[in-house]
Design brief:
- InterPro entries: Invertase/methylesterase_inhib (IPR035513), Pectinesterase_inhib_dom (IPR006501), PME_Inhibitor (IPR051955).
- The chain is mainly alpha-helical.
- The protein contains 7 helices and no strands.
- It has helices at about 5-25, 30-35, 45-55, 60-85, 95-125, 130-160, 165-205.
- It is elongated and about 55 Å long.
- The termini are far apart.
Length: about 210
């Protein structure tokens, strides 16, 4: 069983807490955030989360994409921790159910790794380099986020035959579905940021032509 990365969780939560504290007295919704969230598949939770973690005055698609990635990572870490707790009680469930949950834990753990990579990639991304370099980083983030979505939906498929009823199954599925939704939104917001950057990069290149 993989261990929960406590230092990583504390780091991400501290970043989120600082941003939330600095924006708590500002207006709760930003027109720019709402506009960006319209490109997502789940616009309502998109606005709800980002309104807490992004400065409402921000007009920076990269900042919004970065916040969305961190929200996904925090949600995935919480989900991983909950499933790990359930896995510590194998005697209270059938072997088939335990195996389904154990496999779900593996997929979510892998998703956490992929989201961690994506957060670091965008955080360290320099926008003053060559377009070819940017496209390489873009492909990395898109690949990692797509992998996370594959992981969470594979987990949910595995729970379809889960015989243990009631609250445990419902809670796991709800948490995993939430990870899927926020990650889908993060991918859409990142794609929007990437498209805007490439457009501005081409415009800058054309203006600098001799």
């Amino acid at each position: 069983m993989g261990k929960i990365n406590i230092p990583l969780l504390l780091f991400v939560l501290s970043v989120v807490a600082v941003v939330e504290s600095s924006t708590s007295r500002l207006r709760p919704h930003s027109t720019f955030i709402e506009t960006q969230c319209r490109r997502t598949r789940y616009p309502e939770p998109c606005v709800t989360f980002l309104s807490k973690y992004v400065n409402p005055t921000s007009q920076d698609p990269q900042e919004i994409a970065q916040a969305a990635l961190k929200v996904s990572l925090v949600r995935a870490l919480h989900t991983k921790a909950y499933i790990a707790k359930v896995c510590k009680e194998p005697k209270q469930m059938k072997a088939k159910d335990y195996q389904a949950i154990r496999e779900c834990f593996v997929h979510i753990s892998h998703g956490v790794s992929q989201l961690t990579n994506a957060v670091k990639e965008l955080q360290n991304l320099k926008l003053d380099g060559q377009l070819k370099e940017f496209l390489w980083h873009q492909n990395n983030v898109q690949t990692w986020l797509s992998t996370v979505l594959t992981d969470v939906y594979t987990c949910m498929d595995g729970l379809s035959g889960f015989s243990k009823g009631g609250k445990v199954k419902a809670t796991i599925k709800a948490k995993v579905l939430n990870v899927a939704q926020v990650t889908s939104n993060a991918l859409a917001l990142f794609n929007g940021f990437a498209a805007k950057y490439k457009t501005s990069h081409h415009a800058s290149y054309d203006n600098n032509k001799p």
